Amino acid sequence: AMSSFGALAIDAREVAFDALVAASGKCVEGPPGMGFVFVRRGVLERCAGNSTSLALDLYDQWAYMEKTTQWRYTPPTHVVIALDAALTQFEAQGGQPARLARYTANYETLVAGMGELGFRPFLDPRIQAPIIVTFHAPADPKYAFKEFY
Description:
Strand content: 5-15%
Structural class: mainly alpha
Helix content: 25-40%
Strand order of the largest sheet: 1-2
Radius of gyration: 20 Å
């Protein structure tokens, strides 16, 4: 849910998953730089000793934090503080339903405006999330991607 967490409704009671990975940026609208995982405890515990990466060993980080209440290494304190502020703002603005409503309104405005310029959305609107939108390039011979970009 890297690009959708915070905007799209995700209910673990309805969608079976063992872990959900998200980040401090994207729809949470915090600063980039921190990933986090919601994981079933049993699944995490079965990962003990399986990581081939020191930095990405989720089990070891969790076990160390449970034991010491501290990060294994220097935490990105500025990102943690800014993420806390972003989550406070997220809640104050109405949480996930309000974020989805704003993103949907922005999506509709974007698609309408791009349509006036000759761009067609790549995905069928019935399956398009209002977060990241891809368009077909217009057939107009005057269209030059490098100039547009």
